[in-house]
Structures are given as structure tokens and as C-alpha cells.
Amino acid sequence: MDKKIFSVLLVSLIARIFYFFHSHPIWWDAAVYLSMGKYIFSVGQLGLWEPIRPLLWSTILGYGWFIGLNPQIWGYIITTFFSLGIIYLTYQIAKNYFNQRVALYSAILISFTWVFFFFNFRLYSEIPSVFFALLAFYSYQKKDLFLTGIMAGLAFLTKFPQGIILVIFSLILLKSVKKFSKLILGFILIILPYLAFNYYLYGSPIENLLFASEVLKFAGIWIFQQPWHYYFTTLLYQNILFILAIPGIYFAFKKKRYELILLFILFLIYFIQMPHKEIRFTLIFLPYLAILTALAYEKIIKKLPAILIIITIIFFAMNFQMDYYPINEEFHQFPYGEGEIIITNPLTAYYTPSETTLLYYAWFDYESAKTWLIYIQENNPEYVSIDSCEGGFLCNPNEPLCEEAKQEIINYLEENYNKEYYKKIGVCEYSIYSYSKSLQSLKS
Prior knowledge:
Oligomer: single chain
Distance between the termini: 76 Å
Radius of gyration: 24 Å
């Protein structure tokens, strides 16, 4: 291994080890993946299940729990290896297409882009999916198209939008039946068990994939809706040098590196047109952005790596922040007894040693609030856990009827259930209600 890329990887690892020892609360999606991992390896006895989620990342996290490790720490370790792999693969792909300087600049850019560093400890699916996607790209460069298909399949099973990779490579290889067939065969072999599993559970191999796109249109959209230029402004705030990707596209076009250009542009277009926008989605196309930026830097600014390093460090420092996201752990770790537990936050499922029912799934609105009120009235679940500040129990501000229906649920629980736990932190209220048959008999 070249000493320079080894140095980049070593510094990246040391920085991640340092950040590892700071607090990293479990965010929503991470709680889902961790809980699904428990569900998979307990064969449905623990955790939770969301049909719209790809299964590979949950399975990897769940395996850590299955062998007796702390799944959170296990996830951080695995993600760190994936992150270092992404840095190295970005370097190799750029080196294969251009030269060693472009490769090194690309590795530095991606390694010390804050969003990439920060999500090393979020346990979201973006970083694992990018790792498999880059393995697919690297295999494509090496003309191992069967392996390209396999890795594209693994990327897809980690995050569904990564299927764009297969589309791009398929279009390029369409003229050669032999090459195209190898690519598709590798992909199908990987995803066929997943499609068969979907058919067995849901009666359709792809209906849950279509439903996943619907969820993104409605679930918390008032929180995540952003203007079309959101990714341009946020990426420039991550590193002003990314503006060089524009001339970088021109230089890559001159070199006939069409795959690189298409991967960057199509992913960017895909996420721009989605109403649900988050900075973490830029991780999907960040390696291609870094390579295009590095290519233009090498062509325009020539041999001045110190400037690139200084600017990158400055922007990394500007974005750097310790993770502060208060989590009411005593609420999520409440010692539930036996019986059905309805939850509004998936983190409860991660800590609870029993299966849970998801009130929030797939999104919360007037109709779902009415449905859940009837469900609670008719089934008398043993526990109902309410977190007023997370997406599972939030109404769209433009739907006043939803707030009324939500209040009906609260009123019913207050009148017919025992309140086992209550705590208010800021504007957030945490309540746990338990159903008591003896109490009901006295009231009746």
C-alpha cells in the first residue's frame, strides 16, 4: 500500500477512535435497524419489524447481538471498517481512472468531510451501502462483471436507491449480451432470496419496495421537506472545494469516464426530486463528488496539496460538533411486564426484552389516529408508550383534525389506563400507560 494513502487511513482511524469515546445517542433509523436485527435473530420474539426496510444492515447489526456483543458498539466497529474501506476504494477508483494525485486528493476530501465522519457513529445504512457500491464500481473497473452484479445487489439490499448503480452499468454494457448477462446474473443471485422472502410474507416480491417510496412522501414530510437547491448549499458548507466538481465533470467527460459522471449526476437528480431531503443522503454520491472535485483541483490548481488539505481541515473544523441529542433513556428502558406494548418510538423496542407493536408505522395522521384509538379500545393492550416529540406521534401542522384525534387517544388512556411513568423534558412529554383489569372492573 502506498505510504500516503496509508497515512490518510491511519489519521482517519485515529480521529474515529477519538470520537468513539464521546456520547452517541441512538437516532430513529438506527433504533429501527438495531431492533430489526434483534427481531431477525430472535425469530420474531424480540424487537420490531418494518417491511419497508432493506434487510442486510439490520442482519449485520443483529448478528452482533446474537453472538453476545453490544450491538451498538459492534455497529460502530463495523461502520468504521466500512468507512476506511470507502476511503481506500475511492482512492483506488480515482487512481485507476486518473492518477495518484487525484486519488490522494479524493481520499483526503472524503475522509474529512464532516457528514461522512459524523455518520460513522449513527448506525444508519448509508455508509455500508456506499461501501458495497464502491466495491461494485471497483469490480467493474477490473472487468469482473459477475462480482460487480453481486456487490450491486448487496448495495441495493442495504439501501434501495443504490439500485441506480445497476441501471447505469446495465445501460453501458447493454451492447454486449455476454457482459450484460454476467452483471445481471450476479445481481439476481443476491436479491432473489429477498424477493422470494417478500413474496412469501406479503404476496408480492416488490410491493413493499413501492410502499417504501410512498412512506418517504408522507412520513414527517413537513420536517424533512427542503428546497430543490438544498444539497448544493449544504455540500458547499461541508467543503467549498466541492464547487470544483462542475469543471470536474468536464474533465471527466474529456477522459470518457462516463460511469463516474452518470453515477454522480443521476444520484444527485434522484435525491433532488425527492421532497424528503436530508444531508445524510449526500453520502450516497459523496465518493463520486470527491473524485470529480479532486480531478478539477489537480487540473486547475496543479501541485498544491497543502491548500486542499488546509481548506478541508478548516471546513471540517467549522462543521465539527459533539453529538448532543438528549435521549430519555429511563423512559425507553422502562421495566415492562408481560403483554402487548404499543410504542411511538422504535428506540423502546431496542431496549425492551419483548416484541412491540408500532403505533407510528408507517406514518401518523388523522386516519391512523382514529384507527389506533379503536384498536386500543377493542384490544386493551397491556402497555402504551407515548413520546410526544418524535415522529411516531406527531401530526402534520397542516392537519388540525389529526391533533384532535391524537388528543382523543390521550384522553382515553388517561381515563381508562394507569399512568405508570411521566416525565417532561422541555416541550417533550414521555408517558407510559398500563391497562389494569381490576381497575376496569371497579370503574364498570
